[in-house]
Amino acid sequence: MLLIVVLTLPFIGSVIAAGLPRNARTTAAILSWGVALANVICLAALWPAFQDGEVIRQEIDWLPALGVSLVLRLDGLSWLFSALILGIGALVVLYARYYMSPKDPVPRFFSFLLAFMGAMQGLVLSGNLIQLVVFWELTSLFSFLLIGYWHQNASAREGARMALTVTATGGLAMLVGAVLLGRMAGSYDLDVVLAARDTILADPLHPLALGLLLLGALTKSAQFPFHFWLPRAMAAPTPVSAYLHSATMVKAGVFLLMRIWPIFADTQMWEIVVGGAGLLTLLFGAWCAIYQHDLKGLLAYSTISHLGLIVLLLGLGSELGAVAAIFHTVNHATFKASLFMAAGIIDHETGTRDMRKLSGLLRYMPFTGALAIIAAAAMAGVPLLNGFLSKEMFLAEALAGAERHALFAVLPVLATVASAFSVLYSLRFIHQTFFGPPPTELEKTPHEPPTWMRRPVEVLVALCLLVGVLPAITVGPFLRSAVVSVVGLDPPYYSLAIWHGFNLPLLLSVTALATGVGLYLAFGKTINANPGGALGLRRFNGGYLFERAMTQLNAGAMVVEKVAGTRRLQPQIRVIVLTALGSAFVAVVGAGLAVNPPPLAPRIGDFAFAGLWIIGGVCAFAAAWQAKYHRLAAVVLMGGAGLASCISFIWLSAPDLATTQLVVEVVTTVLLLLGLRWLPKRNEAIRAAPNEERRSKRRRRIDLVIAAAVGAGLAAISYAVMTRPPVEGLSRYFVEHAYKDAGGRNVVNVILVDFRAFDTFGEITVLGVVGLTVFAVLRRFRPASDSLPRPPQMRLQDASDNRREGRNAGDTLKETMLIPQVVMRWMFPFVILLAAHLFLRGHDLPGGGFAAGVVVAIAFVLQYMASGAQWVEDRLTIRPIAWIGIGLLIAAASGAGAWLFGAPFLTSAFQYADLPLLGRVPLASAVIFDLGVVVLVVGATVLVLVALAHQSLRKAHKADETGPEGAA
């Protein structure tokens, strides 16, 4: 149960934060900090359960018939990553409370941050490969929102777009790799996959699966050549950089590599690709970091370099390399998060991050300066700090790797060079920022930040010191638990002692420290005077290459669109219909279409039914004929065709379908009539050019032939199906189990809200999206100029009113609409009562949530028609967008509630209850789901109605005139 809390609590907090007022900065911070702290407590409570290598699993059935479940899996590695995500997340929340400006919509920021935290938790807790990929892509999505939070900033938008494009593309490749890996292992369950190592490696497709998985991991962890998105993501607010680029997003790729390490670590492809990418990234990132003048730019490239170090350690394939990688992951998260926060404090209190303008800040910000110096020293690998310990492990493994593999023969030298570069850029960060003469080009007078803004940095720096001095006590048990989860229950011996005597790794470490200091003393001034860009790599600009690639991709897409696309819907529909027709023709030719004689002779009633369909067909044909110039007649005729369908359902004993068809026909007819009012007029007298007229006639003849072929084909298939002997399908199962399993006698409604509730859930989601899309489109719609004047009838009525003494324009319309207004207003409660009746009886008798929702919408339609949009909205608070959200939440909550009882999503339950006055009645949980359907249908339909009705208000405002009440 605690695992579910740890996973879901951030998402719940995100939803709550999103609903807070724009200026509720403190409230949102308290909420977010409380969520993170509560999860930390839950995580601490889980620690004793698996510290000896056990794994905690919790499965929630989703689609048990298909073997799909939500699997939460917690072992030492995922616990350690969760601790980083939640612990550093809590500190970032506290820091962000003071960093973010009150002018920003800060609750939205915390909503994004909590959603990202939940996505990361889902990623590290996933016990299923496909589930892991889903959360992987969610982290890309929410990181996009966080990086682009200051969307008014062009660089933030570009950084967010670049990060999403690179990481999401890698995620798609990873999805294919995960599918291949699961197919090879025979399951997508992570425990089964890890146990099937030999089976996977024996499969010839395992290199392809590994390559795709590595593409996802390397793009996420900003490894060369996919590193370029990370520096551009520095346009995000500093709390985002401190969180995403120290403990979370960039560590997701590292986490994936650690997860699949037991399977692929011994393969040559792993060593070449992972080790090579890590080595190149380590050196490239360190070299570029040396020449950065922006504090966050330096930290971004140093992050790339340290991520390369971790990936290189994993690529060595040794167990001790994996130990060092896990240890450095923790150490890097602590000192890098504190450094980002310190850089944010400097920017916040001085107005700049440019080191060329900063100097001597230690005298103005002594506490912040001391904390930043210690954290930078940890990054450089200074003794008695946590970075020194994992750096020594790295150097020791570099020496061991040179002995094991010829590819890594020069690894000790390159590792020492990279360590020296780390010392160089760390020393430059310290000296250029905190020492030297007082700054003279700052926008603000430097000073210490608020105390609680500095507290998170103090906590992280204290951890750097504690782990550096007492590693075995502070991090030892957690590191061992994570190591066991990766390398097995018999891990290699490793020591967390501070002193290992005089040995070669210590000599390399001292050499790197001395070389780094010497390089800065020799070239520091030259580096500081550098105009920008890493020496020798200024022409290599990954961001530029990315933009060139995107430009070429867009150009190619435009060419394809020009050749295969069209701005007109008719050719597109023609292609779709012809494709369907051709597919059906191939199937019929291949398998044959046996047409049997009708089993029964026609009856008298059959001729009446055929006459009904002839009437409906004539209406449909006439609607198509009149659609171009006589739209009102076409809509009326379409209504006739719909009414024929409705009567057909009644004829065929389908009252549920007939009820739904009837109410939908009413609503759509009214909405179409409202929409037709604002379309540009078509003038039959205007003729096209002769050549265009010929093309148009030829096109219509072709369309007529296609329509006839499709109609004849469907008629033939329908006749063949209806004249064949009936086959045993699902109908009997639904009839037999509707009451026994779902407590309902209305089989159609039970199918919708129980047996196929997941389909219905998807359909109402689509309906909500359609309503929002129509509303968004119509908000920017401006009627055609020839639609702006009032209709001729209204103008004649107003002219008559103006000529008559004692009357005003619109009086005739008010008098004409008086009786309909009174009748329609009085109908409102009765229509609502009818909707309630349909809803409550829907589980046992014809009715249901969808029909009830449309009937409620009809009640609103009547009020808008009778009294106009302004009159209705002055008296009723209508929030259709909120109705859509609430309806979707009710439907989702009714399905998720089944998890509390150990049942799959959307599993319903029913039992009889004795209620006062009503006696013994059946109660089904599916009714709650149906209530969500009602609310969402009302919201989506009324939203479209409001969007159309407001066109009259917009027109009246544009023409600077007040229309009569019935104008809507």
Question: What would you say about this model in short?
Answer:
By secondary structure, the protein is mostly helical.
What are the main properties of this structure?
single chain; 968 residues; mainly alpha; two-stranded antiparallel ribbon; 37 helices; 4 strands; elongated; disordered C terminus
Tell me the structural class: mainly alpha
Low-confidence stretches: 955-968
Task: Note the beta-strand portion.
Answer: under 5%
Radius of gyration: 34 Å
Mean pLDDT: 85
Taking the sheet with the most strands, its summary is: 2 strands, antiparallel
Summed up, the helix count is 37
What would you call the shape? elongated
Number of strands: 4
Q: In percent, how helical is the residue content?
A: over 70%
Tell me the span between the first and last alpha carbons. 53 Å
Order of strands, main sheet, comes to 1-2
Fold and architecture overview:
The chain has 968 residues and is mainly α. The protein is built from 37 helices and four strands. The strands form two sheets. The protein has a two-stranded antiparallel sheet with strand order 1-2. A hairpin with a 4-residue loop joins strand 1 (56-63) and strand 2. The longest helix is centred in the last third of the chain and has 33 residues, at 690-722. The protein is elongated. The model is unreliable at 955-968 (pLDDT under 50).
